[in-house]
Design brief:
The chain is of the alpha/beta class and 236 residues long. The protein contains seven helices and six strands; from the N terminus they run βααβαβαβααββα. A six-stranded parallel beta sheet has the order 3-4-2-1-5-6, with helices on both faces. Helix 2 packs parallel to helix 3 and helix 3 packs parallel to helix 4. It binds farnesyl diphosphate (FPP). Farnesyl diphosphate binds next to helix 1, helix 2, strand 2 and helix 3.
Amino acid sequence: MISSQLPHHVAIIMDGNGRWAKRRGLPRVAGHKTGLESARVIIETAVEYGIDILTLFAFSTENWQRSSEEVHYLLENLLVLAFENELEQLHKNNVQLLFVGDLDRLGSKLGEKLRIARELTASNSGLKLIIALSYSGKWDITQAMAKIANKVARAELGARDITEQVIAEYLSCASIPDPDLLIRTSGEQRLSNFMLWQLAYAELYFTDVLWPDFRRKEFISALELYKTRDRRFGKC
Ligand code: FPP
């Protein structure tokens, strides 16, 4: 099915790990562990299909409010191990890794893994894999506004110079085209503070499938449905 009508940029809210685990009488972390397998399969499928950009919402600003055990497992254990185990294969697959979010809030162990991954894959020309960590759309817009306010205060930018393009340049995904398709798993139909600016014209795809069960077949279904969408961007 590989086709030019595929989305260039797919963004995913990977939701439902906790419910997947609960239904099986397992601890929540078991859902995250299996969810990581789904992420691996979706990344491989995105490479296979020649998707240009894949953005995964791995940890939100709001997720800091979860139990310290869960936050620790996700950020100090699962993700650290994931980079140790997967980085070489991602690099072999020509994937370029980028990270967005308030990364200074992350621990030094994970921070170091992100730095290594970013530097190792910086010249890769295949899939751009953006992982959003300690990220929220409101955080992103706020940090952009603070930078712009500084420029204005130093008279390096005038109020009249502030256009949509200028604002976009200060957002985390500056120079990355906006997502064409947003996928959210687990039946929830909301954006939950994800890429609020960049999703303005994205096609939305919601599925009841929980993230740990979202694999190649489910991803291809979403890509197929995207091809049927008529994107008018406000024009008739
Ligand atoms: C949402 O499910 C999932 C998360 C907060 C963590 C997502 C992270 C992974 C799947 C690891 C993948 C990471 C990378 C780097 C690709 P939930 O816990 O909110 O589920 P619930 O709504 O059922 O409780």
